[in-house]
Amino acid sequence: MPTIKKTFHRGGIHPDPCKITAGMPVRPLPPAAELRIILSQCIGAPSRPVVKTGDIVRRGQMLAEAGGFVGAPIHSPCAARVVKTERVRNAQGLWQEAMVLQRLTPEELEERPGYDAWPTPRTPEEVAALSPAQIIGIVGESGIVGLGGATFPTRVKLTVPEGKRAWVVVVNAAECEPYLTCDDQLMRACPEEIIKGVELLMRATGAPQGIIGIESNKPKSAERLKGAAEKSDADITVQLLRTRYPQGGEKQLIEALTGRQVPLGGLPIDAGAIVDNVATVYAVYEAVYLRRPLTRRIVTVTGPDVTYAGNYMVDNGTSISDLIETAGGLPADTGKIIAGGPMMGHAVSQPNAPVTKGTSGIVMLPEKLSRRQPEKPCIRCAKCVSTCPMGLQPYLLMTLSKMRLAPEVRAEGVMNCMECGCCAYTCPSARPIVDYIRLGKQLVRALPRE
Ligand code: SF4
Ligand code: SF4
Question: Does residue 311 register a pLDDT over 70?
């Protein structure tokens, strides 16, 4: 019998997957002598420094605490000296506070034995004895945020609000963005650890079931995860999904895997689900079992003309330009560098900016693939409407945003737009729909609260 591949029911597109780096094992990046750790690395408040200039910090030591309830601490990727705090430009060119660290030399490390070592892992018995609140506490203290790019603090996600119940932990292993393969590679290499991470999330939230949703174009990862899940005592299943964008959208994933709908304006927990990206789940495993906070991540560095495209293990704070150099340098005809995937990522205007927790990929696109076509008038073909997975009317949202009609664009549901880009991708008139939708959202946020 053929394997059933589930999917969401409305909209979506099939962009060329361009998974150039699929199957390429994760390689470590040569350690950078200097790291610039941006203090604003999650969707919430910037972190507050707890060390000062001149301090020597251990590997994994907290550098900055969470700046608020929706916030996350930041830790040092290595034994280092805090050189200064300064303002740097992030990848999109915005000025942000950053802590500059100088990695300790081998001679300096000799004088400080143990400074560059990770703590002793917890024993399986110690992990088994942890309460749900303790697991959530460790996740919070370890600075874990959504590694799919959203960077929402995981501790907050795991805290089920009063009156709600989590029925299922949904693991987003779709990796539906073209070019990116960091999650695929992690799943191939660490299936057992990921299953242990899912078990922890189920214990933390009280959810009796775990479902890992993975697109059918990653058969090796799916097979390895299935093998690992079969060894678990927890109710964890691995479900193949149709390869279709945006299969990894939270609402689309919940619908495909559970048949439940998240109400418009609602959260996954309103449908009884907790959704986490697979790399986030692995980070939870590392934090709880290995006592390692989130200080590094896998980044896919790729593009059609990149010499050494690959999946690299990168310390937080490493310069994007170091990654580009390691991958063989910027190809001569590069028209655009993107942080993240080409559908939902952001153009990099500052290649010297540091990698942050949310940097899943660096994609270097040649001029011919990055050039925008001239915008033409809307021909009312409704392609944008039929591909919108949220059931919105993108052409109308663009028009209202352009006319700066904030109450009207809000009434049309602009805040439900997930900025997936399906509408702009499919528009034959090359209309910059998502740019205007972002403007529309800003206008709505500026409205007085009702
Ligand atoms: S970007 Fe927004 S409006 Fe466009 S298809 Fe995606 S959800 Fe719909
Ligand atoms: S896809 Fe483009 S041309 Fe067609 S209705 Fe939407 S905005 Fe207009």
Answer: yes
Q: Are 157 and 150 in contact (CB under 8 A)?
A: no
Q: 169 forms bridges with which residues in the sheet?
A: 210, 274
What is the percentage of the chain residues whose pLDDT exceeds 90? 93
Concatenated DSSP letters of 387-414 = H-TT---HHHHHHHHHTT-HHHHHHTTG
Do the beta carbons of residue 335 and residue 301 sit within 8 Å? no
**Distance (Å, whole) CA 339 – CA 90:** 11
Q: Rounded distance, CA 171 to CA 209, Å?
A: 11
Q: Check whether 2 has a pLDDT greater than 60.
A: no
Read off the amino acid at residue 129. A
Percent over 70 (pLDDT), the chain: 99
Read off the pLDDT of each residue in 401-415 and give the average, rounded to a whole number.
96
Ligand 2 centroid from CA 276, angstroms:
33
Tokens of 52: 């000062």
The 10 Å Cβ neighbour count of residue 155 is: 24
Atom 6, ligand 2: residue with shortest CA distance: 384
Question: What count of other Cβ atoms lies within 10 Å of the Cβ of residue 382?
Answer: 12
Residue 450: pLDDT band (50, 70, 90) is low
Q: What is the mean pLDDT of residues 255-279?
A: 94
**Measured in whole angstroms, how far is the alpha carbon of residue 274 from the centre of its chain?**
15
In the numeric block, the tokens 């300790």 are attached to 104
Nearest CA, atom 3, ligand 1: 394
Both tokens assigned to 361: 């990929």
How far does residue 262's CA lie from ligand 2's centre (Å)?
A: 27
Q: pLDDT band for position 136 (50/70/90)?
A: very high
Domain 1-30+118-371 belongs in CATH node 3.40.50.11540: yes
Whole-number pLDDT of residue 372: 85
Backbone angles phi, psi at 164, to 5 degrees: -110, 160
CA atoms within 13 A on the CB side of 423: 27
Please list the residue range(s) of the chain that carry CATH number 3.40.50.11540. 1-30+118-371
Shortest CA distance to 117 belongs to which of 63, 65, 35, 61?
Answer: 61
Is residue 390 very low, low, confident or very high in pLDDT (cuts 50, 70, 90)? Answer: very high
The pLDDT of 43-57, averaged and rounded, is 95
Pocket of ligand 1 contains residue 246 by CB under 6 Å: no
Cβ of 379 less than 6 Å from ligand 2: yes
Q: How far apart are the first and last CA of the chain?
A: 55
